[in-house]
Amino acid sequence: MPGLRLKQRFPLLSLIIERCLLSIVLLFAVSILIFGGLEALPGDFATTYLGQSATPQAVANIRADLGLNRPVVTRYVEWLGNAVQGDFGTSWASKNSVSEQIGKRLGNSLFLAGFAALISVPLAVGLGMLAVHFRNRMPDKIINVVSLAAISLPEFFIGYLLILFFAVKFGVATFPATVYEGMGLMDRLQAIALPTATLVLVVLAHMMRMTRAAILSVMSSAYMETAELKGLSAFRAIVKHAAPNALAPIINVIALNLAYLIVGVVVVEVVFVYPGMGQYMVDAVTVRDMPVVQACGLIFAAVYIFLNMTADILAIVANPRLRHPR
Length: 326
Prior knowledge:
- The chain is an all-alpha fold.
- Helix content is about 80%, strand content about 0%.
- The chain has 17 helices and no strands.
């Protein structure tokens, strides 16, 4: 069979293609769950918009204007077809284009998550290698205790603590985290200091602990003993030999935490009143603005699936047995 021969001759390429196809199928299934789940919720926008005193005729008129009286399957196919082309329809509440609003909000969320990733990823890898170098000694114990405490605290609690101390008591940080179009880079960075610190504290501990565990599992290998016998210092052996061979699990955990930075930013944005995708979706949920909720849900799912797919592909590429098959 051609597929089997391709898999045998090009195992790396075939695995990458499989991951891509699986991601597409998964995103399609998630789109059904998002659309169907919102349709199954009790109540609708028309009733919420008109209030309890609305007449049945008025509710029926709004439902007809919004197309809610059409079959669910027809509306889903039309919505998915438009979404693939980047058209998420019109907001029921504001009558504005959902795609235009998301374009502005998504940029803010990506800026916040990207800056948090820029700080947390190198810091997590560096602290993980440092913990391995000083394993079972005081620096390692301090890093483990602090990281365990950070993992145990939810995002909103960390956010409120940072607001209390740095914005209220000391007045050295900005709250709420307001950004706007045309804002200077330094002003924008100052505005997002607290939400960035919250996200860094949330994801840093997990990435650092997984980096430490991955490198420690490699340290017991025979070639690490050989490197030490050749006279390499312990830290140089970790950087030159252990870390590159622990790359696959490190990449996986970093990609998963980057996905969390995008998707899990919802809570942080609400806490700091940050004008991003998360705040936009929460505002839409309160008024049952379904086109906005569906669009935000699909984009969050697409980002999460894409980053997981990227992690799988990078882990496959980092595997020398797949890059150089016998």
